Amino acid sequence: MSSSDLAPALSDSEKAGILIVTLDGLIVAADSRTLGFENLADENVRKGITASVTVQYKHQSVSFETLGGHLSRNNTVVWKPRDQRWRALNVSTPTELSVRLTGRNNNPLFATRFTPSWSTKLNLSLKSPSSSRQLVHLEAGRGTIFLRLCYTEQDLPPFEGNYEWEWPYPIGCTDLLRTQKRIGYHGVNQSYAMKVVENADTPAEFEISHPFIAPLQFSLRAPDKLRLFSPMAAGGYLFSHLQKHCRFNVFLARFFAAQLICVLEYLHDHGITFACLRPEYITVDAFDHISLCRPDIFILDPQKKENVLPGTPDITAPELLLGQDPSRATDWWSLGIFLYEMLTGLLPFYHKDPEQYRHRITSQELTVEASVSSDAVGILTRLLEKDPTKRLGVNGASEVKAHVFFQDIDWDELLPRPSVARFELCDTNMIFKSSNDSGVRCNIRKQIQISGIKYMEESFDVYRWWSVIGWVRNERSGNTTQSNIIQQDRNEWDVTWDASSKEFYLHNHTTDENRQVNEQTTNQKFRWPFTKAGNQPTVTDTDASTTMRAVPSELQKKYALATALEFGCKWAVEHGNTDLVNLFLGKGADASYTVEVKHGPALVKAVRKSDQQLVEILAKKTNRLSSTRTLRKAVALRDKAMVKTLLSAGVRCDFERADGAGIGLSVSDFSVGPASLGTSDYINPLAIAARAGDAVLVRLLLAHGADANADYHDFGSWVIEHDDGVERGSVCFSCARPVQVAMELGHSEVVGVLLEEGGADIWAPSPVSRFIDHKCAVVARNVYVRVTAGLEEAAAAMRLS
């Protein structure tokens, strides 16, 4: 398709272009609460705060994050951007730019992570070429934001075969597609909802202009189709924010419902019945204003008195199930569904069986939990009236706006204006329907065993390979097979002295590899492997001068001794030699020492061998973090005897919030660095037991103080063994709490134990990541709805029992 085939949705006086935005810096007063946090003059407070600047054009926005602030002489704090890369926006008309400033505390122990702060607007003039520096002054002299803006005209590229457009994919259960337009090498990709109209001759000429409706920014015509593009607001989907909060308070629910009423009123006044309102169509911008995104609104026939958008609503109205045509009353039913979910966190009439679901919609009376206010119950009852002729709104939007529930809304002041944002920006890449929610096994893979090691077949495209998934364990003792032990014997290291180079080496008998023994071999990043104070050797002039002698220096001997102790202790554990383990520990070997951080210390090896005596010895000598990681491993192996032994030795069931977060860590607590482990390495043992559906282990951990409401992050995938092969299991609740993953996987007994014995809170807000640069994924909507409804049903049954 050539450039002549393009039909941008612009008037003759408008020209598509690119607005380049750069953040040069930010200055705020140290004694103000501009970023929502007090005492910015304190370096310990300041270094944990990230300031973010968001610039919004219509429904699109770009964001910048800053590095830790620097206190200047005039009692102001200077923040520099994390990177000097520019951001870009697709623009077409002169308008106002909205600027938002927020603060985020990265300390995992801090109660408030996100603090809304301040916003304003700038005038945008599109004169090409145009470049200017904008000083955005904060109110009351509290600081300044330094921005640079540069506008350049640019033609819209064709869609097919152009690298600037990403391959589109469906949004939820609709025929709406999501794509991204790349803007330069450093530019931020802008997300668009794309609607493809086949064999369309109708131009995009329906004039729709409302601040809560995403505009038609581009339309590209090909010989047999028309592509329509509307920007997706960068604040994310409204219902992804609802998922994080579980439910909105009445003020927030009323605020968003009022915006939806304004949209429906505008559409009805223009002869449009939406009739298919779904969560996939509702996003929010950087200032918490909704953006209804449905590009094909703009190709409706303006000559018709009544237009009905094709599609089905999220929860079908009863009249549609009974075969009637959609009407404006159908839209008010959808509003009632959304308001109910925002207030309660649940869908009304929900049932996992589709037939039962339809029956409830048409026949069952509406029930609302007692915590909902009487005014809210009143409007929900009227909006969810099964008879459309009696439904609130049938006589127009004015009767909905006049309901007592909205008495505090100033309808004239509701339209977008600078406001304090309540939400962090959220990715619009939300999955609304997961294909893996049926509980049916899929993708069974081959499994083989060689020399006591289990392998699983992996594949990608045309490539095939085998991955190690575990060891064959003796059913009686739990030990690995003898062949595996023999293989490990051949792969061990000796400490040897080389007279020619005058150095100690670790020598591998199998590979003939040599590794020099030095401080790096023994110190392992954080600490000297001896546990006793004063045992760490220091370099002296005498030591340095003797390195050229034919015999080892004192420093070399100490390094070699430390290495021999650590490797010797591990060798003794591997071979179950209790006397040697005690000897090495008595001579100063550190039980928490590890060469490969992911593999863990000697205690992990003892658990894998199911050697109870060694576990009892090492558990008393291993630090807290490594001990809890070992307990997690024992739970993953479903080795109840080892779990009991570790718990009896006082091993703690939960990680601390500071573990792995990079804040509040003491290098004397453990010998491995947090950067060496991933977020999934800090998943609590209770979550592992809940995922496995092992009620016995769950009870055991709860009895020893495990927190049923402790969050986990980045569950990832795991191997599930079957008689006919293996498969990789995965969950949608990758960042959640144990009771949620248990319900998702159908472990009803575990759910009951967590609720009754653990006091699990099913309405706790979604966990906030304590790990820097880790953002929690949003759960697929269909899975979230099923799990949340199941948990509420289980909790209700427990209350009645």
UniProtKB/TrEMBL annotation:
Could you tell me the superkingdom of the organism this chain comes from? Eukaryota
A single MF term (Gene Ontology): protein serine/threonine kinase activity
Listed A to Z, the keywords are: ANK repeat, ATP-binding, Kinase, Nucleotide-binding, Serine/threonine-protein kinase, Transferase
* InterPro entries documented for this protein: Ankyrin_rpt, Ankyrin_rpt-contain_sf, Kinase-like_dom_sf, Prot_kinase_dom
- Domain Protein kinase, by residue range, is 163-406
Quick check: keyword ATP-binding in the entry? yes
Question: Is Magnesium there in the keyword field?
Answer: no
Query: Where does the record place its ANK repeats?
Result: 681-713
SUPFAM superfamilies xrefs: Ankyrin repeat, Protein kinase-like (PK-like)
Q: Which protein, by its recorded name, is this?
A: Protein kinase domain-containing protein
